[in-house]
Amino acid sequence: MDRHDERPHATGDGHDRRREPGHGAVLFYHSVGTDHGDSYGRTISEHRLALDIEAWLDRGYRIVDLTTAVETGGGGGRLALTFDDGYESFATRVVPLLERFDVPATVYVHTDAIGSSNHLTETQLRDLFDHDLVTVGNHTRSHPYLDRVDDHGTLVDEIVGARTTFERRFGVAPDHFAYPFYRFDERSLTVVRDSHETAVAGPPGHPAVGPADPLSTDSDPHLLPRVDGVTLSVLSNAGGCRRLLDGLGP
Ligand SMILES: [Zn+2]
User: Fold this and answer.
1) Which domain holds residue 112?
2) How many Å lie between the centroid of ligand 1 and the Cα of residue 129?
3) Cα 32 to ligand 1 centroid, rounded to whole Å
4) Is there a contact between 96 and 63 (Cβ–Cβ < 8 Å)?
5) 34 φ, ψ to 5°?
6) What is the CATH number of the domain that holds 146?
7) CA 179–ligand 1 middle distance (angstroms)
8) Is 185 part of any domain?
9) Which of 89, 143, 202, 225 is the 20 to 30 Å CA partner of 208?
């Protein structure tokens, strides 16, 4: 069991503690900026993310690493934070927040993006692999639509070859995978099952994912549903977070 699982967190006065959070989720983000929104509407501000983390902790949610969230099915209000695409803002804006709140997160990186504009550099990634609160996950080599990669050798290279590249460059082979664009098919799913411990997909109900259940002990560890943290934040200003998450499951 991870050291971040059962850590008690001080609950501030004035919050309703009669009902403990029952459901958990894997939340996903992309870049983190200084203000609201980007042209894709996928950026959350550093300030907003900090407020959200604080709000969840105050309301009894526990932010755990991905493995713990999967093993427990998110029960007891366990949340895992994930960040896709290896943006540089993960190192510059997210890691300071993780350290401030002492909570873990996973960042998914596609190897072709390392060192490119606005993305993590090799040096930053090296530090992240060494960071106690960070798990680096594999997001393929070139971020393709995996269900459109017809050649099996190319498919294996995108998934397993990228993992091997991490191992060669950083000395660690990631055990966790994220499907680019949340898209997969039976072939890519099979390759991922054979090479990684977990894999995250998209939001429940996303066309590429199907009407997935919220995170539970029945969740397929290689098709884990995720909740859009940016959307959740917009909805959660005054504690709607609990309502939304509690509304996810049975
Ligand atoms: Zn991506």
Assistant:
1) 25-246
2) 19
3) 14
4) no
5) -90, -20
6) 3.20.20.370
7) 7
8) yes
9) 89
Q: Could you give the number of structural domains in the chain?
A: 1
| pTM beyond 0.90 | no
Contact 204, 169 (CB under 8 A): no
Q: Is the pLDDT of residue 6 over 50?
A: no
Give me the phi and psi of 70, to 5 degrees please. -70, -45
- DSSP label at residue 93: I
For the chain, how many residues are written? Answer: 250
Q: Which two tokens stand for residue 151?
A: 């050649």
Is the residue at 216 inside a domain? yes
Question: CA–CA separation, 200 vs 180, rounded Å?
Answer: 10
The answer for residues whose C-beta is within 8 angstroms of residue 222's C-beta and 6 or more apart is 177, 189, 192, 193, 196, 198, 199
Residue 6 Cα, ligand 1 centroid: separation in angstroms?
A: 31
**19: in domain:** no
Minimal CA–CA distance to 56: which of 115, 15, 116? Answer: 15
pLDDT tens digits, 185-234 = 999 999 999 999 999 987 766 655 554 557 888 889 999 988 888 877 76
Neighbours of ion ligand 1 (CB under 5 A): 84-85, 180
Ligand 1 centre distance from Cα of residue 85 (Å): 5
CB 212 within 8 A of CB 205: yes
d(CA 236, CA 212): 22
pLDDT recorded at residue 95: 98
In a domain? residue 130? yes
In sequence order, the β-bridge partners of residue 44 are 32
Closest-CA residue to 222 (of 212, 232, 231, 230) = 212
Give residue 202's identity as a one-letter amino acid code.
G
